[in-house]
Specification:
By secondary structure, the protein is α+β, with helices and mostly antiparallel strands. Helix content is 14%, strand content 33%.
């Protein structure tokens, strides 16, 4: 049955052969999978191919569940064996058609975590006499395959060419070895911050091209790089760099035609150039186009995209074609002012995003990504920091079309081994080349909270910055500090410095209650005075909030190390109110990013009841939006918001309490048990309304808020509280915050 499905799949591909210049075949169905541990003995190697293999479709991870629970499996030696890291294998058979002969054949993996080796078909085995005997019998499963290639790094795409290894007219078998153990040579070198879900967790495809083609294996990029200069409403100069391969063995006269299309399909601009390709090396061809009166890409307000189609023609026939997006825009970070898009101030209301999900790990589909983006857009965010690694190609593309402004970065995070130099540069080059044409990306992230040994780290981050500027001189670079040392030598080798700071969580306090403690407001004031010439972004801040944990009163500290079993939502809400209140008033921060949009797994640290980080504004399963979500929605979104906080703190022990309402449509009215409450004060921002000294009655209390929207409609919200003195609590949380910041 599996073979029938596959042959049907290939037949469909053949039918489509003449419909396009290159053929791209999804290669995700009907893989078989086997997880280790495996014997390290060469004698036992054949056992790998024996026994039962699991039938899987891609994307797939073997850690979808075991990295998200604290359950210790029978026979495990300790808590770090709750989940499997190590070797696993994937296999898939395919039969190339005769029409592939004379073509180039590539396989492209969008993401495999973490280290990958790819093999194709059994090769001749040495005999006892030292001669080779042909042994292509797949039934032997001896593992003696032709080595295709190796890739190190779990988040970027990679391509291998199969042209000279493919056997025509018969079944071919791919064998993919994957390992997700930490390595000192491959970033991230430690896996404590987020899960390294093992597997082929993003899509795979076969790409079939002519012998003359736009480069497929240029670090798995599209082989086309579009830059834009002198962008105004009247004109934009567009440069197109095309990398072309000629493997025909002779000179090839070709025509390169690049066309820029409007959304309606009409032609905006085009350029045709004749070239003669030599048969050696890779050729770099360039074209210059002028777009008059361009429709500018203006973020969420108007994310207009042109389509750029680049064709290679020979004798008038299209032999290759690549399509790329074009959002014509310019951006600028103006010190002390903010982010400007096409000379219009455009606030970076930012959130961070991890890619994992409950029950799925990192093996997400486009529907999952689209749901995350819809939630982020609902909140009113204008920008996303995709931390701490390269994310799905679909995600970047959707940000282009939605108008979200993106910070993209590599997983060089928190620890240094002095062995990761080459891999860090490789992954940065992959990140930039693979995502070069996304108009949504404004900045490349080089590292997050990496320090000692300082001399080595300074040298490496300098190399990374130089590499980023060589690859893409038109975008900003950023490195991130977690210790509030803005003039630290490690963190000033980029255009921008990001600061991760968690006042009242890892250090300091939320508000100035003690003259000996630093709080977020006094810190911001000091930064504004001492570092006024620096480009600074508040790149992380957040606090854990478990919706099941509730407290009527919270203090000025919420450090998780002091009480790891209780993270009241109310403290996190207060944390975000105070922090955003300060950020919104301090233009020294050119942008800011909440840590994190969604709860995410932390399988190694396992700090909580589940091995999970609860700093998300939305629950891990995306079903519950915490109070903090509505705080930012009220402050950022253009949509009307009216929201009463503490709706899950239902059983209350204080007769006299405050009621907080978020409203971005002006001052709301509040009634409790039908009685109008007077006396409201403004809190941290102009959407923050606090009704103090509200008296509850014994038993059920109905709290209702109303406000008129701009169109005359009435917005309303209501909750119920149950008052009983028996529910009385003391102030929740610790009385003192530690200074250790581990980046979680």
């Amino acid at each position: 049955m599996i073979k029938k499905i596959f042959y049907t799949f290939i037949f469909i591909g053949i039918l489509l052969w003449n419909a396009q210049a290159r053929t791209v075949i999804p290669f995700n169905a009907n893989w078989t999978f086997k997880k280790g541990p495996f014997s390290t003995s060469i004698i036992d190697y054949n056992q790998l191919f024996e026994g039962k293999w699991q039938l899987v479709n891609l994307p797939h991870t073997w850690n979808a569940n075991d990295m998200q629970t604290k359950e210790i499996k029978p026979g495990s030696l300790g808590k770090n064996e709750r989940f499997y890291t190590g070797d696993a294998y994937y296999r898939k058979s395919f039969v190339p058609g005769a029409e592939w002969k004379g073509k180039r054949i590539f396989i492209r993996f969008e993401g495999v975590n973490t280290n990958t080796e790819v093999y194709l078909n059994n090769k001749p085995l040495p005999t006892k006499e030292g001669k080779n005997e042909l042994t292509y019998d797949n039934s032997q499963r001896n593992g003696n395959y032709n080595f295709v290639g190796r890739h190190q790094g779990g988040y970027s795409a990679f391509v291998f060419e199969l042209t000279n290894m493919v056997k025509f007219g018969t079944e071919n078998e791919l064998l993919v070895k994957v390992n997700n153990e930490a390595s000192p040579q491959v970033i991230p070198v430690n896996h404590t911050l987020f899960p390294m879900y093992g597997g082929i967790y993003r899509p795979v495809e076969l790409i079939i091209t002519d012998e003359v083609n736009t480069a497929v294996n240029d670090f798995a990029s599209k082989g086309i790089y579009i830059t834009q200069k002198d962008v105004t409403k009247k004109m934009a100069n567009i440069a197109v760099k095309i990398k072309v391969d000629n493997k025909s063995g002779r000179k090839q006269p070709i025509e390169v035609l690049t066309t820029i299309f409007e959304k309606d399909g009409s032609v905006k601009a085009k350029q045709s150039t004749a070239y003669t390709l030599v048969p050696q090396g890779r050729q770099i061809l360039t074209q210059q186009l002028t777009v008059k009166n361009p429709h500018l890409w203006q973020g969420l307000d108007d994310p207009y995209l042109y389509k750029v189609v680049t064709q290679l023609k020979r004798d008038g026939q299209v032999i290759d074609e690549v399509t790329t997006p074009l959002g014509i825009r310019k951006f600028e970070l103006r010190t002390g002012e903010g982010f400007f898009l096409n000379d219009i101030k455009y606030p970076l209301y930012g959130v961070c995003r991890h890619q994992d999900r409950l029950g799925k790990g990192s093996a997400l589909n486009n529907t999952d990504h689209a749901e995350d983006l819809a939630i982020i857009k609902e909140m009113g965010a204008t920008s996303i920091r995709l931390a701490h690694y390269q994310q799905s190609e679909y995600f970047y593309s959707k940000c282009d079309s939605m108008g979200l402004v993106i910070w993209a970065e590599i997983p060089f995070v928190n620890r240094v081994t002095t062995f990761e130099d080459n891999n860090a540069q490789q992954q940065l080059k992959e990140l930039i080349r693979q995502n070069f044409n996304h108009p949504s990306i404004y900045i490349w992230g080089m590292h997050n909270e990496v320090y000692t040994p300082s001399a080595y780290t300074v040298e490496l981050t300098t190399k990374l910055n130089d590499l980023a500027k060589s690859e893409d001189p038109d975008r900003y670079t950023v490195s991130v500090s977690g210790y509030n040392v803005i003039d630290h030598p490690v963190n000033n080798n980029a255009d921008v410095q990001g600061i991760n700071h968690y006042f009242g969580w890892y250090n300091g306090e939320l508000e100035d209650k003690s003259p000996k403690e630093d709080d977020v407001a006094s810190w911001a004031s000091r930064i504004r005075e001492e570092f006024k010439d620096y480009r600074i972004i508040f790149s992380e801040y957040g606090a854990e909030a478990i919706p099941e944990d509730q407290a009527e009163e919270v203090g000025n500290f919420g450090n998780q190390w002091s009480n790891p079993s209780f993270f009241p939502e109310e403290y996190a809400t207060k944390f975000h109110e105070v922090h955003w209140g300060v950020i919104s008033k301090n233009p020294i921060f050119l942008g800011s990013y909440v840590w994190n949009t969604f709860d995410f797994a932390t399988p190694i640290t396992g700090l909580n009841v589940n091995p999970r980080n609860y700093k998300g504004l939305v629950s891990f399963d995306r079903k519950l939006k915490k109070d903090g979500f509505y705080w930012y929605k009220a402050n950022w979104s253009k949509e009307p918001v009216l929201y009463i906080t503490q709706r899950r703190m239902m059983n209350r022990g204080n007769e006299i309490t405050a009621v907080t309402v978020y409203s971005n449509r002006g001052e709301p009215t509040l009634t409790v048990n039908g009685q109008l409450i007077k006396g409201v004060k403004i809190g941290q921002t102009n959407v923050h309304y606090i009704f103090e000294n509200v008296k509850l009655k014994l038993g059920k209390n109905t709290v209702e808020a109303q406000v008129s929207s701009k169109d005359g409609k009435i917005l309303a919200d209501n909750i119920e509280w149950n008052y009983d003195p028996a529910y009385k609590q003391g102030p929740a949380g610790p009385t003192k915050s530690k200074t250790e910041h581990v980046g979680l």
